[in-house]
Protein 1
Amino acid sequence: MPGEFYIEGKKEEIDITDIKNIISDMRTSIASLASMADFWSDPQEEVQIDSTGITVVLPGVTVDGIPTNASILRAMAMFKFRIIENTNAVANKLNGGTVPATDQVIQVRDDTPGSWIDAISFADDQFSLEGQTREGGDVCIGSIDISGVVDGNGGYDFQWLLGRADLD
């Protein structure tokens, strides 16, 4: 009959509407599997870096509620800050010369603990501020896929490796 299909191995015929419904259900299932979620740390009141290059421990992040059979395809770190302030009389900014030929980075590791990997890279001279200035913050989103470390439910540590400004 027109509008009907025979599927090998099935005894009954299926109407084209049934096939459309099956495809729609499959699309819904696939879309629900490819979802995104954000996991945030507790706030930290202040992070201060100086001209010597110090490693700053940042709050950890707990990932929870991901199904055990789920695969993490891509994970990205975000660094949200509210205000940056330069208390010096002259301009100040990040100093990328902390380690020769590298810039500063925020790193992540599994809290078991695992090895640190880079999550967010800062550029030399980033966050430049004139003297005696306060500015509103922003969000820095890393471009480094950290799913090799952030691979499911658990705790993850963060640090700002050798954070350094031109001036204290």
Protein 2
Amino acid sequence: MKKIVLFMHTTLDGFVAGPNGEMNWINVDDEIFDEAAKVTDRSDTALYGRNTYGMMEGYWPTAADKPNASKHDIQHSKWYNSADKIVISKTMEGVQKPKTKVISHDLAQQIKKIKQGHGKDIVIFGSPSTCHSLMHDNLIDEYILTINPVLLGAGIPLFKGIEKLTKLKLVSSKVLKSAVVLAHYQNHS
């Protein structure tokens, strides 16, 4: 059975973006990219909301072809191009793209069916609204959070719409050179 693994940048006070979608507080460096690569190595499917999918689709398919492509750009571009994509969107209903499935209705049922399939895990990078929907239905199996040492006070929260107790077990944690804390939890609900 496939697992859904969330890899998300967050602030210490639990926001994934500022009030206007600002993400300039996120620390990204080779150490964080290496941690993200560990997640993609064990997954063959990416799950996105419409906005995040648009951003990813606008960059990753050709990121490795750029003359100044980093090691991460090359690795992630190769993974992105080989991965299946699931996009949660009502406005993209009926859109046909290679290796891409659009889910517009019955999210919980369709995700449960996909999780029953064979293959590697499903990873979510970003897509807070999609995460909120999946959390509401307790469909996220693992949370890998890069907790940045900043407080925003307001913005888009990571955790929203959870109506019942969700028990998580800490699998590992470490402080990265950038002072970002990498925390890996498994869902035990």
Protein 3
Amino acid sequence: MGCAMRTARSKHQSADGFGLIEVLIAMSILLVGLSAMLNMFTLAAGLNANQGEAAKRVTEYAQDKMEQLLALDFSDAATNTTVYPTTAAGGTGLGGAMAVNTTVPAGGIDPSSPATGYVDYLGASGNLLADSNGALYVRQWSISTGPTTTLKTITVAVTATRSLGPGRAPSTRVVAYKSQTE
């Protein structure tokens, strides 16, 4: 009879399932894995939000400058567009006095060599700065006159000076045409 009891007891013990200690160990492992994934998700979401915000801003700042330039008279060669609001003198305007040459535009959009009179610098909140110190965005533009002298091509490029998240610093380029109306 003693032998029958031992057999029944060992069968009963193996059928009990998991004990409290096993469940606690499994839950601990699960919590460690979930917290690591939550930290990665939070970091990725934050970095993507910052990078997306910077990409949105470079486009917005390019459009703002393009609207400012398109509002000028076709032959304007004096309005200072590096300040806001613009002033009637002390600037380059739309380069009204430049020679007709589509290969040599006034200004330039090469980030390594900003052209004086065709560049401005913006801070993190979009405020216009006096120079490149502390600038988060560099806004450059060029203006070229076509062979008919009645059409100007305006190109505005905005580049973030550094990346606010993973990947390259965002940049954008906007191109528009302004025709001479009589």
